[in-house]
Design a protein that fits this description.
Strand content: under 5%
Number of helices: 4
Shape: elongated
Order of helices and strands: HHHH
Helix content: over 70%
Number of strands: 0
Length: about 100
């Protein structure tokens, strides 16, 4: 396999995504210990809010502040190109639900 900048950036983003998933899991488990989610409806609402706010922030900040075109931002969500960033909002959505069942 030839080492290219594209391969390095894809690998770096993959490592970053996995580390972020782990950090969110640890933070949410600690938060759930002190402030448990009391109902499944609350868990789904919290997860949906986290996911929507994350995606909204990324697209608004990325486009209007960092001046990244929407097409490039959307590229981070393409699993077929090896981009696994889509797992972050999915994880943020299901994490409160897992937490609800974990501390129930």
């Amino acid at each position: 396999m030839q080492i290219t900048l594209k391969n390095i950036c894809t690998a770096k983003n993959g490592v970053t995504s996995v580390l972020l998933i782990i950090i969110f899991a640890v933070y949410t488990l600690a938060l759930g210990y002190f402030a448990p989610v009391l109902s499944l409806f609350s868990a789904v609402s919290i997860g949906l809010m986290w996911a929507v706010l994350t995606i909204t922030f990324e697209f608004l900040f990325g486009h209007f502040v960092a001046k990244i075109p929407f097409s490039e931002l959307l590229n981070d969500y393409n699993l077929f190109k090896g981009r696994i960033w889509i797992l972050i909002p999915i994880w943020l959505f299901i994490l409160p639900i897992i937490l609800y069942y974990f501390y129930r």
